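[09:14] KT: can someone run the structure on this one? pasting the chain below
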Amino acid sequence: MRLLLITSDRDFGAKIAAAFGNRATCHIEGACSEAIDLVTRDEFDALLIDSAIPRASHLDVIRKIRAEGISSPILLMLDVNIPAARIDAFMIGADDVMPRSFVDAEMVVRINNLVRRCNGHSQPTVKLGAVTIDFNQRCVFVNGRSAELTAKEFDVVELLALRRGKVLSKENFLNYLYGGLNEPEVKIIDVFICKLRKKLAHLGASDLITTVRGKGYVLRDTPPTPAPTARPNFSMNRSVAYQW
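[09:31] RB: done, structure tokens below
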């Protein structure tokens, strides 16, 4: 996923980025005005705002982001554990609040939950027939058997599941997987999809990902059912003359 960290503390930002490892692409922006401009021009799966921003109020930053119509989930990192401070943040548009002295695992789970719920998934799993996609375990199960996916392959499935029913372009995948940093050629998405299909087909889920020619790929709620083939008509209206 693609995250924007608004903080002037580079060490703190690096700590957050390290918590996600290769599971997310983190952009760190220290200047509030530039961060707000960036979030209005670009798309991020979640925003993390540090309350310890010099010469700026974290509440004003949240307020301005929401005033721009940005609906991306916001997690505020507070340096004080005061109920009134948390309430103020929730009242102006923050989706979650946690202390700056965070535990890595908790940070990752909170962001994953925010992104999932923002995309309409209240549960940590998505089930499509015999296929179960588990966001927390980062696994795909087919008939109870786990598919051996790489981190990037699961990221592809994750994005398809979060945007289920929507056709995603290859640029959408590149943005989600690499976030504009060291992006490979766009054909790498075709390679990921091809490998995914082979692994899923091996477990009996060959029709999970659909190609929309000229547009991209989509994960449908129900895999398309092949059109029935026409049966040959063997009925013949023939007059047969028999000679005795």
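[09:33] KT: thanks! The chain has two domains: 2-118, 125-219.
[09:34] RB: yep, looked fine to me
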